[in-house]
């Protein structure tokens, strides 16, 4: 399978949404505001050079949305279609995003993984991402349409 990696653009939205909905882990990470077309468009405008997708035969098979605040970066969404896993696609996307972040002067990146997503934990560990146990992740929804989380 020939795979190409390119930046994400807003016209990819419908295909990205279908990809995210192809896995239970990605689907449950979505929220109706930030992951709407308007929310993703806003995200891509702010992070035009650090978000990538993988495609094969005209089909989007993987995506990574990575952004930063000028100091630290976060991987917001990472997904590879279940039919295309274990082929190095996720690693390829992470490497491309990390290269883009380095070019922008970013020295540290983090991501969030659901505690019950052992597959993702193993993947990120292999990529060199360490588990921080000395922090508590806290969030607050400023929009009643965005779930607070557990």
What would the keywords be for this entry?
150 residues; alpha+beta; Aminopeptidase; 5-stranded mixed β-sheet; 5 helices; 32% helix; globular
Q: What order do the helices and strands follow?
A: EHHHEEEHEH
What value does the Rg take, in angstroms? 15 Å
The top-level CATH class is Alpha Beta
Name given to the CATH homologous superfamily: Gcn5-related N-acetyltransferase (GNAT)
Mean of the pLDDT scores?
91
Helix-and-strand structural type: alpha+beta
For the biggest β-sheet, the strand order reads 1-2-3-4-5
Largest sheet data: 5 strands, mixed
The number of helical segments is: 5
Shape: globular
Strand content: 15-25%
The strand count comes to 5
Proportion of residues in helical segments: 25-40%
Outline the structure in words.
- The protein has 150 residues and is α+β, with helices and mostly antiparallel strands.
- The protein has a single domain, classed as 3-Layer(aba) Sandwich (Aminopeptidase).
- The chain is 32% helix and 21% strand.
- It has a 5-stranded mixed sheet with strand order 1-2-3-4-5, with helices on both faces.
- A hairpin with a 2-residue loop joins strand 2 (51-56) and strand 3 (59-68).
- The mean pLDDT is 91.
What's the topology here?
Layout: E1 4-7, H1 13-20, H2 24-29, H3 37-46, E2 51-56, E3 59-68, E4 73-80, H4 89-103, E5 109-111, H5 118-126
Parallel strand pairs: 4-5
Antiparallel strand pairs: 1-2, 2-3, 3-4
